[in-house]
Amino acid sequence: MDLTQGSEKEKYDRSKKMMLWFGIVSLLMGFAGWTSAYIVSSSRKDWLQDIELPSLFYVSTGLLVISSLTFILAKRGVQQNKQQLATLFLVTTLVLGIAFIFLQFQGFNQMLENGYRFTGPTSSIKMSYVYLIAFVHIVHVVAGLICLSVVLFRQVKGKYTAQEYLGLTLGATFWHFLGILWVYLILFMTFVK
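Predicted structure:
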């Protein structure tokens, strides 16, 4: 496909999609670096092998997966011209995203209660990586919630139709990426001891 062909709108839409994918690839590279450092550091003598991740991390993972499903249903609602249903699913996605962040911080509290600190004499390199990876992901989920809020605002204003919903598609792509990334990270931190 020749990217220089098509109407101005088609070129503009392609450029938006391309920018999103450049951003996603950049994020993947960052998290690949942190998980690689985690693997390299796991050979250290002071690496803790038997640490369990907070149970709330797994609960929050379930909420994030469900939020991806509600985003899919919201997009389907717009495509089928069921605007109120689409709005309801977008609001549900937003609430689940906020709940994910809340549970992540509660998971940090569980780690603190178990004596695992990010830094200091009672910290470990492994737990520092867990805090870092989870917190950086939370920051990106906050960015996802901002994008989702814009999508929701535009939906409420009637900007999306069954024929025109690029913004919703871009927001959904980023949201699904964040969900898939977290599922990978939680599985990685669970199984790479």
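Summary: The domain at 10-40+55-191 is CATH 1.20.120.80 (Four Helix Bundle (Hemerythrin (Met), subunit A)).
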